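Reproducibility note. Readers wishing to regenerate the assembly model reported in the main text can use the exact inputs given here. Chain order matters: entities are listed in the order in which they were concatenated for prediction.
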Amino acid sequence: MSERTLRGKVAIAGIGETTYYKHGQSPDAEFKLALQAILAACHDAGIDPKEVDGFASYGDDRSDAPRLAAALGIKELRFSNMHWGGGGGGVAASVANAAAAVHSGMANCVIAFRSLAQGQFARYGRSRLGAAAMGDDAFLAPYGLISPAQRFAMKITRFMSDRGIRHEALRAIAMASYHHAQSNPRAVMYGRPLTEEKYDASRWIIEPFHRLFDCCQENDGAGAVLVVPADRAKDLPHKPTYLLGTAQGGHHRSAAPVHNAPDYASAHFPTVAKNMWAMAKLGPQDVDVVQAYENFTGGVLLSLVEHGFVDPKTANEFLVLENLLAPSGKMPMNTSGGNLAECYMHGLEMVNEAVRQLRGTANNQVAGAEVVAVLGGPMVTPVSSLVLGTEATL
Amino acid sequence: MSTTMKRALPDGLPAPDQPPLTKPYWDGTRAGKLVIQRCKGCGAHQWGPEWVCHRCHSFDLGWEEVAPTGRIWSWQRPHHPVHQALTGFGPYTIVLVELPHAGNVRMVGNLICEPTAPVEIGAEVEAVFEPHDEADPPYTLVQWRLKG
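Running the prediction on these inputs yields the following structure tokens for the assembly.
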């Protein structure tokens, strides 16, 4: 039986994004933002947008594929896909689903995207519950456990307490994102550096490990990538960026109700990371740059541990700012500013940054980057991750 | 059960929906009892409620009263109000309580304590039934306090 894999089979030929705005500041409607990002990705790839024949997204994106296909005059829609789960758990999965469609022959030219103008709808950090809490929320909301931060906080409390990991490790994660954003004019936090003092003085969102700067913001904008067969990418304007490995899902009962996952103090990557590395035929030691989705810095810690980038035993020593910075840190991470400081585009901006690093065009370029890992939104189910590489890694 | 007891959180938070799947639990709390799902097929405890046993796939899930005690498995203390009922209130303490005598299922509730009180993972706690008699339908939450 031939090996079933996506390794080297498809490439990201184009990336696009809109201007990134603070929450509620977009002058454009959310759907218009989606269109702008998609057209930008096609332009970047040198491909006529009417050749696009598929759309993949996640997080219940409101810009649906049929409307996009009609608005853009797509000749033939062959693939449309929405990945289950909220937030950015599906960011890598949207690229993977696009890749699977392309490699299987279901489609030829698929956009994976995310569009968000949350200010035009509702806030993530505020309750949208009615008078009665349904489902899982019935056992949570009456106790004041409502927001995403609150859903995840007890995983982080337990993991960090058990392992003796200090809050300073999370501070380094937040500061790395802000540091990189200072040399990225696209970043919402460009010109707004974060110091240790400012972080330490920031207010508690949740004790014991969530200060203000441990938490993502909300932003408006859109991002998109264009996925094509590997063969085709060779003839396009940019140096191709190949998908080497990807996986999605969650380990045993990670979504068990009312916080009853057997392995609870987890970002839900143990099996996903294993499967991703197996497909990529690589491990964390082979990665030049890491993009790790920050919904909350504690989730980044868990992601890094579960992908093998950080040993919990040495997390306090390893997770210091200098190790996380481009160009020469031991593990340059979130080199465009990430969700915290470039834009909370639910991680799609991290896929774009991974491609830039591999093309050699990033604002905070890591010299000679050949392999970049993108770890999607942690602590939800399904989660997803991917590894991209240059032609040299095939 | 006094209806004048001080509640852990301000009034105005969402009330629990009580559909058939979870109704036996809420009926139990009204009577001051902690009842959770237990599979009649294989004996596994299960929480939260589901239609099928995750271990043996039996649909014959019963309900069993369990001792209303446990130990703190994890905790958090929110400061930022995320619901209008919490504006100007807080911080408050949420605990994840493990029930070692019931298959290590975990329950979420508030720890009744001062907002600055230290919280220790592993600490023994006992349930405090908090009635909301005025609600329609009425319901009773399960809060927790440190044992003795």
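We highlight two features of this model. The CA atoms of residues 38 and 329 of chain A lie 33 Å apart. Chain A touches chain B through 44 residues (CB under 8 Å).
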